[in-house]
Amino acid sequence: MSGKYDVVVMGAGHNGLVAAAYLAKAGKKVLVVERQAWPGGGVVTRELNTPGYRHDLHSSVHIMIQGNPMITQDELGLFAKFGLKYNYSDVPYASIFADQSFLITYKDLDRACAEIAKFSAKDAETYRAFARRSMEMLPMFVSGLYAPPLPMGAFIAMLDQSDEGREMLDAMSRSSVDIIDSTFEHPRVKMHLLKLVTENLQMPDELGTGMGIYLMPGIIHTYGVSQPVGGSGGLTDALVRCVEHYGGEIRLNAEVSRVIVSGGKATGLQLADGEVVSGKDGVIAAIHPHRIRHFLGDAVEEKVVKRAERVNTSTFSLFVSHYDLKKQATFYAGPEVATATMLEYYTFDSLPEMLDDFDCLRRGRLPKRPLTGGSDETHADPTRAPPGAGIWHSITMAPYRLEDGGAARWDEIKEEVADYNLSFYRRFTPSLTDDNIIARTTWSPLDMERSSPNSFVNGDMHGAAPFMYQTMAHRPTPDLGNFTVPGVEGLYLVGPFMHPGGGVYGAGRATAIKMFDDLGIDFDRAVGA
Fold first, then answer.
1. List of residues 6+ apart from 294 with CB closer than 8 A
2. How far apart are CA 304 and CA 306, in angstroms?
3. Which residues contact 387 (CB under 8 A, 6 or more apart)?
């Protein structure tokens, strides 16, 4: 049996759904096929353990999408028509230290600076100037995030024509720790700011990651950080409603075995059960560069495939545990930190100790002092659990390949690691006692890869490392950076490994713009219809 559509989409991750929604709104007949029994990819909220307790499987906080015109201008009607609601916190980010003191970055810049002044008056004024500079530079940077990027040469030449551009270019070539260590003086302020940047799966001392520290203060103090009401999957739910409203179809439990290429053109997808679904205008596919050979065989030149297979994934991954709690979590540090959207914990008190722990990840070792974040998300959204109850979201940075046993060893040790991480969290909260924990589910980096093998290769939820040589039109490679595959007409790529990067960006918008251009569709007119 075969079905004929204008566009077929492989993968119902949020990026694929975004691209599908724009095309469906433009009047195209769209089919999205998804191997899982639910849509969303890395943007999913589910009852993992106990009915009524709703956990975010992967993404939880939506930061970078807040500058996307899909959100700022509601181009798809996700807010006006399809039920999307965001909680915007006044407390985007906080750190708790071993002595239970804490440092909060408020959305309000004056309050954020007052917090830093508790540790260093000089750093407070430095941060104020730094954040203002970030906010000034933000429009220039954001303007290129949600559309196909300029060629790398043109992009660098453009930056080199202004003081702001040269400053950005300099930051993009440096490491985050280089910028932070030379700009601020207090170790806790340095650690607080650096840990925020590592949320993008960046090592603090890796060259080519410094732009993150320039970008994040501007994002936080301009847009804030947010979570959809009901969980991260609220974005997916709204996108599904949008696609279906405009006549698109989403088929679950439908795994793709290959992209069909005929006469140098992608014409459809073959499913694992043998069914073929055809796309008259083209195919959109969430295919990690390491998986190009698997899905396209010899339809792509070997040199293109080899460059794709050399794409570097992030240096570390995440180890996550989801707890159902009888009673909502509290903190020894007090109630204010509970309101933070992103909350980090430290048992070290110096930057060298922090860098030593990150260095363990680079070598496939688990640090003795876990690099952790997470909290009880019912403080911001009580709908996530029954009244008075809580959900604890434990996030620990971890290597994908362990020094002893490789990735496969995770299946042996993950519960032991989860127990160790639990003992660490108990230093900061009295609520994670055995009698308050109803149930726990743990995801290792290997489990992350299994959940989305065509996107989360090597347990990298961001698809590819955010190094400068894998950014802009070189993300993931110069061959693939224009959302197309050389030699295969009508095939468009979508996913976290594409520009602008991993995380929740709504980056399928850029894929849609590229396809609109090739089909001769006026994007602005179609979106405004």
1. none
2. 6
3. none
Nearest to 380 by CA among 216, 224, 195, 193: 224
HSE-CB at 112 with a 13 A cutoff on CA atoms is 28
Widest pairwise Cα distance in the chain: 70
Query: What is the pLDDT averaged over residues 18-34?
Result: 98
Q: What is the number of H-type helices and E-type strands within the chain? A: 17, 19
Relative to beta strand 256-262, strand 265-271 is antiparallel
Question: 2-43+231-312+460-528 sits in which CATH class?
Answer: alpha beta
Top-confidence residue, 259 or 170 = 259
Tell me the C-alpha to C-alpha distance, in Å, between residue 170 and each of 174, 179, 210, 326, 468.
7, 10, 8, 50, 11
Beta bridge partners of 87: 227
Q: How far apart are CA 491 and CA 250, in angstroms?
A: 19
Asked if 95 and 102 count as a contact pair (C-beta separation under 8 A), the reply is yes
Question: Cβ–Cβ contacts within 10 Å for residue 329, how many?
Answer: 22
Q: Provide the residue type at 81 as one letter.
A: K
- The CB density around residue 227, as the number of other CB atoms within 10 Å, is 24
Beta strands in 315-406 (DSSP E): 317-325, 342-345, 372-376, 390-398
- pLDDT tens profile 472-517: 999 999 999 999 999 999 999 999 999 998 889 999 999 999 999 9
Residue-wise pLDDT for 110-129, tens only, equals 999 999 999 999 999 999 99
Q: How far does CA 31 lie from the centroid of its chain?
A: 25
Residue 234 Cα to chain centre, angstroms: 15
Q: Inter-axis angle of helices 109-117 and 121-142, to 10 degrees?
A: 150
- The model's pTM is 0.96
Tell me how far apart the alpha carbons of residues 467 and 208 are, in angstroms, rounded to a whole number.
Answer: 5
H-state helical runs in 297-378: 302-309, 351-362
Q: Are 57 and 496 in contact (CB under 8 A)?
A: no
Apex 19 CA angle, 71 and 290, nearest 5 = 120
DSSP for residue 62: B
- Give Cα 140 to chain centroid, integer Å: 21
Comparing CA positions, the residue from 36, 32, 82, 39 lying closest to residue 250 is 32
3-state SS class at 284: strand
What does the block give as tokens for 457? 């290769």
Long-range contacts of 134-139 (CB under 8 A, 24+ apart): 134/214, 134/215, 134/216, 134/217, 134/218, 134/221, 135/217, 135/218, 135/221, 135/222, 136/164, 136/218, 137/164, 137/167, 137/168, 137/214, 137/218, 138/67, 138/215, 138/218, 138/219, 138/222
